[in-house]
Specification:
Layout lengths: L10 E10 L2 E11 L4 E5 L6 H8 L7 E6 L2 E2 L7 H7 E4 L11 H11 L5 H14 L15 H13 L5 E5 L7 H16 L3 E5 L3 H7 L2 E6 L2 E6 L1 H6 L4 H12 L1
Parallel strand pairs: 3-8, 3-9, 6-7, 7-8
Antiparallel strand pairs: 1-2, 1-4, 4-5, 9-10
Helix pairs in contact: 3-4, 3-5, 4-5, 5-6
């Protein structure tokens, strides 16, 4: 990957804080993501990982600090938040597909409504990305007719149809049966190879080792450690990181 450190970051979180009532869920988060960079965020349940990326997409409001995407400040109350979400694709733990729509119609919905593409343009784009995630033959099926892994790949293709600048993944394999995990990870690896900017919350450490430019470890709402995969896995600095890796790799 070429060095883009002199370029403005695509995503910048500066001293970000968030509370749920008295619970301090994000504490002074500082993180930048350069164009084309792949950042993996890991950590125990309840450490704030999912909340962090939901704040990037204005699905959660934050109460302190700043988040910028492409130079524009993220604000969950901003009337222009729909424009942000056109630039930022998001894939969730659950697939969130429209059950009453075919796969093709699920993929066309956003480009037709938000991007104002014509139906032929939207369908051409949808079929392109279904091929990209290796399930072009599923276009006319309904979500209930697909496996969990296929549904998640449809969800990835749907996000790509909006032509985003960055893709956010919130534990995209956690709801899948073990034999379906690799087909989703392979799709994400393909995306990474194509140069997509990615911010990924996952416990899949093999994916982090092979794809990430940086691995971020969070605990109790704070970033405890951030390093290259080589250093993160072979020589973590913090005892809390070492303990986490011992447990998750043994598991």
């Amino acid at each position: 990957m070429k060095d883009t450190r002199l370029s403005p970051p695509l995503i910048a979180l500066t001293d970000v804080n968030k509370w749920y009532d008295d619970f301090h869920v994000l504490k002074d988060i500082n993180l930048t993501v350069q164009q084309g960079e792949k950042i993996v965020i890991c950590g125990p349940s309840g450490s704030g990982k999912s909340t962090l990326i939901r704040c990037v997409n204005a699905l959660e409001a934050y109460q302190g600090g700043d988040i910028h995407v492409g130079g524009a400040r993220v604000d969950a109350d901003d009337k222009h938040v729909h424009k942000l979400r056109q630039r930022v694709g998001m894939v969730f733990q659950q697939f969130n597909l429209f059950a009453h729509m075919s796969v093709l119609d699920n993929l066309c919905f956003g480009p037709l409504k938000a991007l104002k593409l014509s139906k032929p343009e939207a369908e051409e784009r949808a079929r392109h990305f279904l091929a990209k995630v290796r399930i072009p033959e599923q276009a006319d099926k309904y979500p209930s007719q697909l496996s969990g892994g296929q549904q998640q790949r449809v969800a990835i293709a749907r996000a790509l149809c909006m032509n985003p600048d960055v893709m956010l993944f919130d534990e995209p394999t956690s709801a899948l049966d073990p034999e379906m995990i690799n087909e989703v990870l392979d799709t994400m690896i393909d995306l990474a190879r194509d140069g997509m900017t990615m911010l990924v919350v996952t416990h899949e450490m093999g994916f982090a080792k092979s794809v990430a430019d940086q691995v971020v470890f969070m605990d109790h709402g704070s970033i405890v450690e951030q390093a290259t995969p080589e250093r993160f896995f072979s020589n973590p600095e913090h005892a809390r990181t070492q303990d986490f890796l011992t447990k998750i790799i043994q598991h």
